[in-house]
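LAB NOTEBOOK - FOLDING QUEUE
OPERATOR: T.R.
BATCH SIZE: 2
PURPOSE: Compare the predicted structure-token outputs for two unrelated chains run back to back under identical settings.
PRIORITY: normal
REVIEWER: second-year student, initials M.K.

ITEM 1
FIELD SEQUENCE / FIELD STRUCTURE:
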Amino acid sequence: MKFLDKLALKIFSIIILVVSIIAILVVTEVVSLESIGEFLVNLTDGIDMVRVTIIASVILLVLAIKGLFFTSRPKNEGKNGIVLENQSGKLVISKESLDNLIASVVKEIPGAESISSRTFLDKNKNLIVYVTTILSKDVMIKDVSQELQEKIKEALKRTADLEVKEVNIKVKNVVNKKVKGLPETKEEKPEEKPEETQAEEENTDNNEEKGE
């Protein structure tokens, strides 16, 4: 809502409020019309009421016409997406499209699953992305988060030509889930000694016991 609309609304609201209060006071006989007339005469004593009345009436008339026929409509552009403008026109990229793009990027990274994402523009028209994800315990959280930030920035720049200021990652949970594409970690087993070596060690131990 623009300044003139707000001003007109406030002025008419004040007028209606004053008229309503006066009407209630007159009907309940708390104040008489004669006393109100005397008050107005004393208040405007020495003032050119004709000129004041004409000026006030013109202002109210203009505001009334403005409110009835030229009401400004709120701009909904950018509310549900990102608006890009050029010489040929405007392009609105919906937030759903951006969320799907971010989700596809997250799926490509082993060990990460996207739960939700949010995108919005700050006061300086900078794009900021928030991603909530679940990670596997087999990955390094710091490394995966950094990879997510870089991949999301690259995807939004390549696909939508959007410069991303920040990509904020929130790890909601770490799950015990095997990750495809990662090398399996094998537990190290103790080396088995050959049978001959074991027999020699046993004979040595027996000889030492006999010597004692």
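ITEM 2
FIELD SEQUENCE / FIELD STRUCTURE:
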Amino acid sequence: MNSNTTRHHAANRRQGALDPGRAGLDGSDRAGSDPGAGDPAGAGGVNGVLVTLSQALALLFDHDLHPATGISRHTIDSYKTTFRLLLRFVEHSRPQLSCSRTPLERFDAGLVEAFLRHLQEDRRCCRATLNVRRAAFSALARAVMRRYPHLVGYCQSLLALRSRKAPQVLVGYFELHELEAIFSAVDTSTPDGFRDLVLLRCLYNTGARASELCALRFADLRLDEPAHVVLHGKGGKSRTVPLWPTTVDMLRAYLKAARRTPKPAHQDRLFIGRRGNALTRQGLYKIAHHYIQAAVRRLPQLARRELHPVCSFRHTTASHLLMAGVSLPEIQDLLGHARLETTMRYPVVSLERKRYALTRLLELRSHRPAESTETNKSSDHQKLIDWLERL
């Protein structure tokens, strides 16, 4: 037997020792019950190349999702959360796959579907969240397919995972009197209370996302004319938003007397939390939720389900601009939407305007003109009313 044949057989023996299917880790005592048992290609690749989940994740996060590529930090954090949840799911429901040498192909489309069902049924995740988690596996598949062509079949099975059709969510926003009730619920006699009011006012003025407002630095703020703030949004895109004079005055007062002393690492951050760190999205959520709940005592309708403690301020900005006659492309630019279709989700007509329109329709219906004896017995208005009644 020549040396090449000897090395080939030795490689096969090492590969077989690493095959979870042969070791009985898949819950079966039969050798060969695993599709890759006895076959180096099935155990992790061709020519004895074993690819594990940890190797695939290192490839994804160190190369495809490296910050230098310009990928959003939020996207990276979201994908990390997905795979942390997957590993916890595997640890409890598929302990035989917890071995660090388990081939990547054992984490197949069937396992991923079971994981997504677990998120939906046990963790009560909505369909939109499931689609975000599914996107992480698609990113993993694309990264692996480029580096390991022999795993193209496995990767295609992950890419073929179906997305969940998420229902169209009603965008909640505040009417003007509701917004004033929320602002009035803030106790501005304390520095933190005044900071909270500045936060809420800035949310409404700028239409900023929670992450954009919390990430503001002094370099992003200009209080002299023309006063504006630079928001850094999704996809590394930045935009400039003008500030109202009242917002400028409140920011000046906040910086002079109400801003907490920050820790050295957060000196340049605009909004500081109680512990001296930069304010987080979770902290902003709690602040806004607290004052909305306080305003509910005065206006019970603020307890409606479609309202979100932070996002509804952004939606309110868009809706009020639309009602004021501002064009959709201008609102798209102000909010930082990549597509105009996203901006078009926001309500164009307030509830009060809708109520007025329906009242006018009833008045028109009750004062319809008398029928004519001519051949044309219905006016154009009557035809329209009849058509509306048949809808």
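REVIEWER COMMENT (ITEM 2): The longest strand covers residues 228-232.
FOLLOW-UP: none requested
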